[in-house]
Amino acid sequence: xxxxxxxxxxxxxxxxxxxxxxxxxxxxxxxxxxxxxxxxxxxxxxxxxxxxxxxxxxxxxxxxxxxxxxxxxxxxxxxxxxxxxxxxxxxxxxxxxxxxxxxxxxxxxxxxxxxxxxxxxxxxxxxxxxxxxxxxxxxxxxxxxxxxxxxxxxxxxxxxxxxxxxxxxxxxxxxxxxxxxxxxxxxxxxxxxxxxxxxxxxxxxxxxxxxxxxxxxxxxxxxxxxxxxxxxxxxxxxxxxxxxxxxxx
Length: 249
Ligand SMILES: [Zn+2]
Known about the structure:
- The protein is an alpha/beta fold.
- It has one domain: TIM Barrel (Alpha-Beta Barrel), CATH 3.20.20.
- Helix content is 42%, strand content 18%.
- The chain has 9 helices and 8 strands.
- Strands 1-2-3-4-5-6-7-8 form an 8-stranded parallel beta sheet.
- Strand 5, helix 5 and strand 6 form a beta-alpha-beta unit.
- Helix 8 crosses helix 9.
- The protein is globular.
């Protein structure tokens, strides 16, 4: 079984999501987690989950959408507590890459969402770009669990996350020539890794330059298998176990 644990199946990116899913199914992908990034995509993901039996979703506000109204997210989340397709609060976090997003405001929104996840006992899907120092300090103060999506840090950073119980997401960028995390991922135990495409972004080599979609998760699975010198089937088997630990499937 293959499972794309992080993608953005939005109408904005894909004209025909049913077709994208059937293409992925042909490659052996059986389930998907499609992550919301703002209020609008929260509603869109809820609709998508209703239409697509194999698509699970997260609800949350991404740091780049920091101006969205947190109160509305809380209402959406509380109204969906019994929705079995809603598996985590995400994609949430900190992104200091671009100027113009108030850091204080990002931290405030992030902490509100961490508290919400804790209150309803759901994992979190975390986005962290150029913000490790603040991220680790905040996570230490809270009692959450979940995944550091698209991990691109050092071994020391990985170990700090692991101490707090977090798993890490590995995406197509690990296949890029200039990847700095490949050597780290090589040393991270397979049972701490979740495979993600982050479609439509981060298309793995050799398809880099094209739009990414969940069918490409097999490329990442094969790449990780090679990197760790194990069989791809072992990677798949291990994924099943990690997914059930992180997302309570
Ligand atoms: Zn994402």
